[in-house]
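Table 4 source record.
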Amino acid sequence: MSTIAHARSHAVTHAWRGVLAGLVGGIVFGVLMAMMGMLPMVAMLVGSQNPAVGGVVHLVISAGIGLVFGVLVGAFADRIWALLGAGVVYGMVWWVLGALVLMPTMLGMPVFNINQTAMMSLMGHLKAPPPEGGGFQPSWPTWGFMAQAARSGSA
């Protein structure tokens, strides 16, 4: 196998693991969002106010964000602290981009509006209690899910 083909194979593997981990993190964060009544606002991104639609939109976004994270940092899967640090930074970046800029802009709301809802969203982007088993460790940051998925080979 050529070096290029081997590198592509690893990138695809990291991407799929990122998608898987993004979905797991998205499900956990989605449950928290449902409990906070935030899913109808997410549904508004596609012209609905149905919480189930918001859940689907949230999972699609989570899978995409996980895919990008897997490709960007999957090569560091054997360095857990570096991967977790990258995950925390990545979660903060997506909190700013998604919750504070893109979503409000798309919904005609003020950007950088940091209120109680925004702070709860930050906590969801950085930390959520992951499910037991499946190679995921309890009490790690949400993007830590991706780190563990990358390490565990559970794609």
